[in-house]
Amino acid sequence: MRIIIIGAGQVGYHIASRLISEDKDVVIVDTNRQVLETVAESLDLETVHGSGSSPRILEQAGIRTADTLLAVTDSDEVNLIACTFSNILAPELKKVARIRNPEYTEYEDILARNLLNIDIVVNPEEEVIRSIERLMDTPGAADVNEFPDIGLKLLGIWIREDSPFAGLDLASLKRQSAMADFIVASIIRQEKLIIPSGADILKTGDLVYFVCTRESLEQFLSTFNLRGRSQHNVLIIGGGNIGYKLARRLETKKGSQVKLMDQDSQRCQFLAENLDRTIVLQGDGTDQRLLAEENVGGMDVVVSLTEDEENNILSSLLAKSMGATLTVTRINKLAYMGLMHSIGLELIVSPRLSAANSILRHVRKGAVISSLSIKEEAEALEVRAGEHSLLLHRPLKDIDLPRGVLILCLVREDTIIIPGGDSVIQPQDRVILISSNKDISKVEKALIGE
Amino acid sequence: MRLRVILQFVGFVVLLISLSMLLAVPFSLAYEDGTAGLFFGCSGMGAAAGGLLILATRSKQTVVLNHREGMAIVTLSWVAAGLTAALPFYISGAIPSFTDCLFETMSGFTTTGASILEDIEALPKGLLFWRSLTHWLGGMGIILLSLAILPFLGVGGMQLFKAEVPGPTPDKLRPRIKDTALILWTVYLLFSVLETILLYAGGMDLFNSLCHTFGTVATGGFSPKNASIGHYSSLYFHVVITVFMFLAGTNFALHYKLLQGSPGSYLKSSEFKYYVILVLAVTGILTLSLWGSSGEEAGYSLRHGVFQAVTIVTTTGYVTADYELWAPLAQVLLFICMFSGGMAGSTSGGIKTMRTLLLGKHNIRELKKLVHPRAVIPLKLDGRPVPENVLGGIWGFFLLFISLMVLAALILAGMGMDLVTSFAAAIACIGNIGPGLGDVGPADNYAGLPLAAKWVLTFCMLLGRLEIYTVIILITPEFWRK
């Protein structure tokens, strides 16, 4: 599978490294030669120097033999032109454009069907806002994601020192918490993925991923002692697009009390005019006195969303030390991700990571209905087995799955089945499984039946 | 620098070389020369050493190589390959001196083709086959072969690829290194099969067909015959070998594009055109010089003119005639051609036509700038601008190549060798050609050289094959600093 990526920035690099770990052929196009050289040194891919909006460069990147084009530069215009030309040069190609300007997204249907045949247009801001909301709804979870159609949640939870579950093996964990319906999907230990079995023991510092239904979420959270206060008092630092939209979303909720802080007085003017119940503050999010004045300690959630990630980290750390219960921090450089847990900031959002993840989700479309990333190491996939799939018509214990793959559950006509070795997957079933990055292409092949 | 990672890779290369020794066994058995047991023994020893090295350094972590480790791996692997391959020669006693054994195998892997054997045909056939096989393995590259067949070397493969593949900016043919390596080796294998069939069809026996094919497609020059290709008087053999030497001196990426169905790529490459013109020009002058000043007949002049021009430009080093008996013009011309080498991305040695072409273009640009001091003139190759840092790298390489050659010649002269011999031996080894002039000319060999001279030349061969930087960087203190 040959995939062309236009733009070797953070998003492009991230997508490329994920796709390569899945054994796909990647060609990356960028106008900056130095960036390309660095990328070529750390990733096993082909680089083409030039603008992705030029048809000649697209030809040079092998557009006619490619399967997918991902236009992910920072410029919407370049991305759209790249997709337009690709549409002319290779009409069969799957095209995904990264779009940041919200105006375009209102015309998503036109782009998709009438004019350009661009399959999907992505707006990461929306994705970021949704993930902030999910994190606020589920306090205590470090990562919350959802398979929307079937109402299954994927939660990542840190095992802390005081956790009653530290040192417990998974089989007895299941027995002790018989009340709640959940499945352990995977364990991330020291940034390494573990595909769990009943004998695995939970250790302090593990990030454990669970799958549970939307209905049993409450019960699950109380089992884990994670039910917090309701999240009424919110301080948002940074009134950019995301901060503004998040405030607008939150202020409509009953009983909520939202404060929005921005440095720029003109922007504050705009925000105050366009928001109803939100209190707009003009000031610096790292100003300790201002934070104290606005009673940061009494806040349920402090969300730092400015463009400047170092400032966001500082604001969150300050808010934490001043007593805020929950902080959410926006990060741009993906390299910072690994550091965050060690400095005590657990809830992270990143527009670029969100963009990369939703673009990856579109790459998979086909047999894979939706996919959720697990800490860049693995993916939880919702799939439907094709007619000729190797997964059908035999008991699970006879299916030869790669080592990094685990079938978690089946969804058959709205009921969730936790399969045993003798279960057989039916053609209409949706299968939830987890796969390490490098086994994803094998799963994809098994689904089609190659 | 993680020694464990480096040694692990070296272990794999040793294992690979040891296992490939078994390919010589059928010939040992067919000719009943009694070396089959020797090859099994040496292969077992090498495989055990390589296997132990791999076991001792194994680890579950996935490894991402950095620049320095890439260069160390490539250089050390080549040295280890030379040492491993020397085992059968040393243990059998066919070549008594260890220095000579290493010289011979290094000359093989680096596709130099310089030999210390005075009577080649006296060696058992199995050993001669192994000697030629080292050419074939080294021609397209041992590291490249490992990248193609070992599944786990994806990450950091680019570092290894760049350190081994000749040329200023090696091309990736496919997005992934493994696929690129596989393609290059497949094209190489295809040419080898084709040439073997053609030689065999012309009446050469299988053993000699294979050995000469190895020497040709790798642009090596080892022949199992004392008189090299001169042993055969058939015009057919000369033509087949000339054509394949020429093809082996061409960038293999172009051959791949031909196989993909776009033969026009040859003509689109200005380096290829330059290479063709160079070969034609040298052929023309050689032929005329033989015909005119040496008073040879026209047919002889053309036949040997073409063969000798191609064999020297592509750095193969086969000989059909003792060119030291030719006119001075022919000798000087051949000496100058030893610097050239074939195209970048081919199996040939030398400076490579890509570099000389760009240096020429650069000089023309500088001249233009003298006339129009404020002119902005980008340096272009095939319609694409060449980055200044690539050009700087080429100048650096050119300077290093010449200075190291001169330094080697100076050391050789210090051991009492004459002017012609010392310079010719130095360029013939660093340029991976093989036969030089004077005491190391086409009718002579390297056997009579002093021990120390052989070590210097062995090092030169390695320098030339890995294009200097990869090797020389390992002896700078900067490299080893943490």
Question: How does this structure look, described?
Answer:
The complex is a heterodimer of chains A (about 450) and B (about 475). Chain A is an alpha/beta fold. Chain A folds into four domains: about 1-120, Rossmann fold; about 145-225, Alpha-Beta Plaits (2-Layer Sandwich); about 235-355, NAD(P)-binding Rossmann-like Domain (Rossmann fold, 3-Layer(aba) Sandwich); about 385-450, Regulator of K+ conductance, C-terminal domain (Alpha-Beta Plaits). Helix content of chain A is about 35%, strand content about 25%. In chain A, strands 3-2-1-4-5-6 form a six-stranded parallel β-sheet, sandwiched between helices. A six-stranded parallel β-sheet of chain A has the order 14-13-12-15-16-17, sandwiched between helices. A five-stranded antiparallel β-sheet of chain A has the order 7-8-11-9-10. In chain A, α4 (about 75-90) links the parallel β4 and β5 (about 95-100). The radius of gyration of chain A is 23 Å and the shape is globular. In chain B, β1 and β2 (about 385) form a beta hairpin. The longest helix of chain B has 27 residues, at about 390-415. The interface of A and B includes residues 2, 20, 41 and 46 of A.
CATH topology of the largest domain in chain A: Rossmann fold
The major sheet of chain B is characterized as: 2 strands, antiparallel
Trace the largest sheet of chain A across and list its strands. Answer: 3-2-1-4-5-6
Determine Rg of chain B (CA atoms, Å). Answer: 22 Å
Write the layout of secondary structure elements.
The complex is a heterodimer of chains A (450) and B (482).
Chain A: E1 2-6, H1 10-21, E2 25-30, H2 33-42, E3 46-49, H3 55-60, E4 68-71, H4 76-89, E5 94-98, H5 102-105, H6 108-115, E6 120-122, H7 124-137, E7 143-147, E8 152-158, H8 170-176, E9 183-189, E10 192-194, E11 207-213, H9 217-223, E12 233-237, H10 241-251, E13 257-262, H11 265-274, E14 279-282, H12 288-293, E15 301-304, H13 309-321, E16 326-330, H14 337-340, E17 347-349, H15 351-364, E18 368-374, E19 378-384, E20 405-412, E21 415-417, E22 430-436, H16 440-448
Chain B: H1 3-20, H2 25-30, H3 36-56, H4 67-92, H5 98-109, H6 125-140, H7 142-149, H8 157-164, H9 177-201, H10 206-217, H11 235-248, H12 252-259, H13 265-268, H14 270-292, H15 298-313, H16 328-340, H17 353-371, E1 380-381, E2 384-385, H18 388-414, H19 419-430, H20 451-465, H21 469-472, H22 477-480
Antiparallel strand pairs in B: 1-2
Helix pairs in contact in B: 1-3, 1-4, 3-4, 4-5, 4-8, 5-6, 5-20, 6-10, 7-9, 9-10, 9-11, 9-12, 10-11, 11-15, 14-15, 14-16, 15-16, 17-18, 18-19, 18-20, 19-20
